[in-house]
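Protein entry
_____________
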Amino acid sequence: MTHAVPARRLAAPTARRSAAVVAGLAATALLAAGCSAGDDAAAEDTIVVSTFPFGVEEFQEAVIDPFTAETGIKVEVETGSNADRLSQLQVAGDSSGIDVMLLSDYYAALGQETDLFQQVDAAKVPALDEIADFALEDSYAGPAYSYQLNGTIYSTEALTTEEAADWDLYGDAAQSGSLALPDISVTAGQLMISGVGETYGDGPYDIDTALDTLGGWAPGILQFYSSSTEVTNLLTQGEIVAADSLSGFATDLVASGEPFAWTPPATGRYMATNRAMIPAGAPNVDGAHQFIDYLLSAEAQTKSAELVGDLPVNPDATVPDSISAVVGDIAADPVAAGYTTLDPAELVPTRGEWVDRFAREVTAG
C-alpha cells in the first residue's frame, strides 16, 4: 500500500560543462607539476551542484548566492533532465566531479540501485532535525528538499471545485475532447496512475485497474502531455477545461488572475519529492553536506518558495501568497491533508514494464 512515514535514518550525474571539464583537466596537470597544495585548497572552497534546467537564475538568487556569502564556498551549477544527468553520472562514475545532485525521488532511487549515491551523514546536516518527517524517508540516501502535489488544474468558468476533484471527470462523456492527462514519463503521470489505482482498485500499485481505467478514458482525452507548457497553453487557448497536473503548474496562471484554479483529488492523493543526493565519488563531501544543510534551512526554504516556487519541507519556512493561493493550507502539512509518497521499492523494478504497458494500453489508440 502506501509508503509509511518511517523513523529518521539519515546518518550521514552528469559531467561538468565543457569549461568545467577543461578546468578539471588543467587542475590535474597542475597537480602533476607539483602544484597540488593550492589546488586542494581551491577544491575545498568549491562544490559542483547538478540541478534541474528550469528556474536556475531564481535558485542562484535564493540559495546559491546566500550559501556562498555565508560559507565562502563557491558553487558551480550543472543542469539537465533527471534522466540525462543520472545517465551521465553512471557513465562518469567517481570522476563526474559532482558534489550534490538534486533529483526527483524516482531517479534518486534508481541511482541508488547501482550504488551511485552515498548516505548523507546526519551529524553533518543539523537542519535534518528541523524538516518534516516525510522528507526523511529511509528509502533514500538523501533528504527531500521540496515536494510536488498531484491534483487537477481547471477552468473555474467550466467546472466547480467538486467536479474537478472527482476522478470521474476524466471519464465524463460531456467533457470528452476537453481534458488532458500526463504521460507516464513525467512526474504527474506516476502520481496519476497511483491515484486512479487507489480510487478504483486495490491501491496505488494496482497497475491493472489503473491502466484499464485510463484506457477507457483515453478516447475522451485530447492530449497526454509531457510538459507544463503544454498544459498551460491548452488551458489558456481554451482547448481544454481541466488536466491532472502538479500544483506548481497553476501558480503563474492563478497569480495572473486568469480564471483557473487547482484542487487536490477527493481520493488518491500522492506527492513526489525532490531529493538532495551526494554522489559516491563526490570530491568535496564536506562542502556537499554544508550545502544540503543550508538548502534545508528555514531561510533558504523561504527564499526558494518565494523565488523558485518550491514547496518547503521545513515547517518554519514562510509559504508565499503565490503558493497559498493555489494549494491553501496543504503546504503547511501535506501529510495531514491526506497526501502520501510512493514506495520506490514498488516502482523502480516495475518501471520499464509499466511504461511499455501505458504506451500499449492507454496512449496507443
Observations:
- Residues 1-9, 11-39 have pLDDT under 50 and may be disordered.
- The two ends are 30 Å apart (CA to CA).
